Amino acid sequence: MKKLLAMLLMLMLLVCGTVGAMAEEEKDISEYTVVMIVKQSDSWFDDMEVGVNQLAADTGLNCYVLFPESGDAALQISLMEDLISQGVDAICVVPNDPEALIPTITKAREAGIVVVSHEAPGIADSVDLDVEAFVNEEFGRLMGEAVAQAAGGEGQYAGFVGGLTMETHMVWYQAAVDYISENYPDMVCVSEEPYEDGNSIEGAYDKTAELIRAYPDIKVIFDCSAHGGGICQAIQDRNLQDSIKVVSLALPSMSATYLKDGSMVHGQAWRPADAGYAACYAAYLLASGQGVETGTDLLAPGYESVTVEGTIAYGNAPLIFSADNIDDYNF
């Protein structure tokens, strides 16, 4: 009798396990919640929200964006803590200070929440996946070549980042400076580290005013945040647009005027909407057990066949803007 009861119990456990597995497999995409935490509220991340909302409309995934009140890592941590308590399926984050977020990321993953980062390859070992639009060093070298061309291969130049803790900005900056140093020995970077614009037009404007006073012979200023328009405006207000040129990470809606009048000679970026779409879809694939590997299609332009190295998924999505093509873009 005991053997019979034991056999029945084992059978019940097997049946329950099978039913549970089937239920998991049959879970609809609309039952998953993926939340993207961006750096701050500005035009760049407004466009990222467009992509996340489009993913929700296209697939039925319950995904949305949270905006911290400012570019403060503590605010991102607070939002993550709230999402952990809610038990969402996945959190996507574009960190202001990647290292500062690691303890909270670890807490989320220990709670069974998938974490996907963007613009944070340096903490890829701490997340389930980091989604990048391209190899960041290549993007930086592209910017460095544009700076050299704008300077005619000689003279003084300087670079800006949003903040010294912003990993990708620093990688682009260093790759650009290294490229120029290796290939254009007659060019001189006027500072040992980049200037910070605080991810704002006003910050870029004010820092440019300081820079021009300190280095009146400077020929090119490049910005690794999308606020090169502030640099252009500071230059124009001083009637120096013929002698100082700007190369910048650029959002067409913020930079078209300056590209057309020639003060910004080169803009480059990737589409924030596409990055948001790809990152959130990758988070869903991971949360649903489908996974992301080399060749996976994340359904966004430039991410149709990602290359996965370790826990980083690289797309191929750089965009180059000039006066000739800027009207082709509407974000």
TrEMBL record:
Task: Indicate the principal place this protein occupies in or around the cell.
Answer: other
Keywords, A to Z, come to:
Signal
Name recorded for this polypeptide: Substrate-binding domain-containing protein
Gene3D superfamilies to which the protein is assigned, alphabetical: 3.40.50.2300
- State the Gene Ontology terms under molecular function: carbohydrate binding
How far does the signal peptide extend, from start to end residue? 1-23
* Family as reported in the entry's similarity comment: Belongs to the bacterial solute-binding protein 2 family.
Query: What GO cellular component entries does it have?
Result: outer membrane-bounded periplasmic space
InterPro entries reported for this sequence: Bact_Solute-Bind_Prot2, Peripla_BP_I, SBP_2_dom
Enumerate the spans annotated as Periplasmic binding protein domain: 35-290
- Origin: domain of life: Bacteria
Subcellular location(s): the record lists: Cell envelope
Q: Which organism is it from?
A: Candidatus Pullichristensenella stercorigallinarum
Source organism phylogeny: Bacteria, Bacillati, Bacillota, Clostridia, Candidatus Pullichristensenella
